[in-house]
Amino acid sequence: MTKRARSFDAAAELYQAYRPGYPAALFDAVEELAGRPLAGARVADVGAGTGIATALLHARGAEVVAVEPGDGMAAEFRRVNPGIALVRGDGDRLPLADGAFDLLTYAQAWHWTDPERSVPEARRVLRPGGALALWWNDPDMSVPWIAEQDERLRAFFGVSGLPARQSPGLDVTTREVRWSRRVPLAAHLANLTSHSAFLLLGEDGTRAFVDAERARLESLFPDGTVEESYVVTLRVAVF
User: 90: buried, middle or exposed (CB in 10 Å: 19+, 13-18, 0-12)?
Assistant: First the structure.
């Protein structure tokens, strides 16, 4: 694991408390593109983190097992999802049996893998006709205040563009799902600080950005409630 990936272990409770979940429409799209219902399907959720997606798959009736490499994330997963199976590992070395699963899911996690390893591993553990579903939950840049915040974040960290999100060697179908949630301003800011760039930055730098951002958003959302808008990009490959 990279230092950036390992940074989540120290903030697992923050991640669980403030990261957004996923809308029902996403799982409807997974079922449509995978060609089968989640209810009764054998599913492995890889890079499961604290189990935000895993729990929702379980709630849809999937027989789901989580795969997570990080110590802190795995401990938080077990705390909040005591009834869901968890094994330690990652997408490049899946600790799963050959041909045992109907569906592999990667929620915000595929970009942490090496596709030269994770694609063959997906083929190995999926049954014939099984599917690989990858998705990313990104802020909706068509919303002006979100695009402006994103520009401030990129300027602050000196970065441009999103992480590589290719699916090499796979014939995928792509679907976008838009959704939103309303949260207190404090929860919105805490969600920002749960991202790896802030986790690596440290307390002083994080506080400087958050204090300035709070002042901007208080004038924009005087009632203290922020409507976060997202676009989930889903990619499904059927084997």
Answer: buried
Confidence grade of residue 39 (pLDDT, cut at 50, 70, 90): very high
Q: How many domains does the chain have?
A: 1
Whose CA is closest to 72, among 61, 80, 64?
80
101-107 vs 225-238, strand pairing mode: unpaired
**Which domain, by its residues, includes 87?**
3-140+164-182+227-238
Inside any domain, residue 152 = no
- Domain annotation covers residue 204: no
Please check whether residue 191 is in contact with residue 19, taking contact to mean a CB–CB distance below 8 angstroms: yes
Contact predicate 47/112, CB 8 Å: yes
CATH number of domain containing 94: 3.40.50.150
On whether the CB atoms of residues 96 and 125 are closer than 8 A, the answer is: yes
Q: Tens digit of pLDDT for each residue in 53-65?
A: 999 999 999 999 9
| Within a domain: 154 | no
Of 206, 170, 203, give the one whose Cα is nearest residue 189: 206
Instruction: Answer whether 0.70 is exceeded by the pTM.
Output: yes
What is the 8-class DSSP label of residue 162? Answer: P
